[in-house]
Amino acid sequence: MASIVAVIASTHHPFYYRASTATGEDRPPFADEWTRKILAFRETLTRARPDVLVMVGSDHFHQLWLDNMPQFLVGKAPHYDANWYNEEREFGLPRMLLKGQEDLSGHILRAGLDAGFDLAFSNELRIDHSITCPIITLRPEADLPIVPIYTNIFAPPLPQPKRFVQLGQSIRDIVESWPSHLRVAVIGTGHLSLELGGPRQFGPHGPDPEFDQRAVEWIANGDLDECLREVTLDSLHSPGNATHGFMDFMLMMGVAGAGVKADYVDTLDLFHTMEAYFTWYPNGAPT
Amino acid sequence: MSKYLLNKFLFMVDRDPELVERYRSEPGELVAWWEAECANTVLNCHTGEASTWLRFDDVEREALATHDHVKLFELGAHPFLTLTLFIALFERDNTEPLEYQKSYGARLAHFSMPYPDIAT
User: Fold this and answer.
1) Structurally, how many domains does chain B consist of?
2) Is A155's Cβ below 8 Å from some Cβ in B?
3) Which of A21, A65, B26, B49 has the fewest CB atoms nearer than 10 Å to its CB?
4) Are A196 and B81 an interchain contact pair (Cβ–Cβ within 8 Å)?
5) Does B15 touch chain A if contact means CB atoms closer than 8 Å?
6) What ipTM did this prediction achieve?
């Protein structure tokens, strides 16, 4: 069976690409420290020597729209074009083309449906920065085949937080039951406290540093009990109006397992939002 | 009132560079044209089929035609869509980094929790 060689949860900050590639006067003062942290984070994936990446993210009203909105969707295609005109425009993100791992997509869809998740699927999916940001930070060669999994953290009504956790737990079981010798890393991105298009946006740090601190502790300690006690669809409005993206972190806590401490934890307090990086090695840290 | 149609306008204009420029330079004309020609387009379908019932009310039409992002927030338009499009419209006028983004937030300072409902 396949093995999960790394579970990685991260924020996806669309400004990283531009900040890290800028030079001279255009280079922001925080770029060097940010780049150092990303290179160290990248090493946690490189060391695991993955063959395939399962990528959990969320479409930001690019391909998925309110006339036909899935809650959870699995891509099943041989290729995925990536990034959109408005992401080039606002963030300077490059167009990309990623390979798909269709066999694992099909396995996740079949086993997920049989496990009680009525997963939507797409055979032609153009992915956005929720998945390309971690490709850029963690595997900039973009050479590994992927299975994209989109969650709806964006367009209410949303699934409950516990459903994200349950899906993560199922993804863990499903990937580990994939009849393959390949080494799989499961990577998911979300947000800590975040405000977009509201009065608390683009502050000197994230809109709710206290929430961020608690959230990092929940994730680092795998404290799903406390996290599920504290986090509801209603409560997530308070830290910032885009904080429902935290539910993708909860999904990744489900993949990593309740009570399992992360093997690698790092954060970076930036303007606008806090960056956070976590890696678990389910089979022990690679040597 | 149709939060959905407000969002549809923001969504469709934001993804089209030509419409972004028309919305910046001639917002009233662009909104009128879009409502007449595009509001009832069924996205992700073959052309030739359309809806028949979608239209703005006067408050919505005015908010869009005057670039009034504060009113759009009050009406429950999706804040991500509004922000993304308005950054495309006005960030180019910045004299320092994030100037427009910060002033955009400041103009919303009178809103407190809970914010207007964005569910559609």
Assistant:
1) 1
2) yes
3) B49
4) no
5) yes
6) 0.95
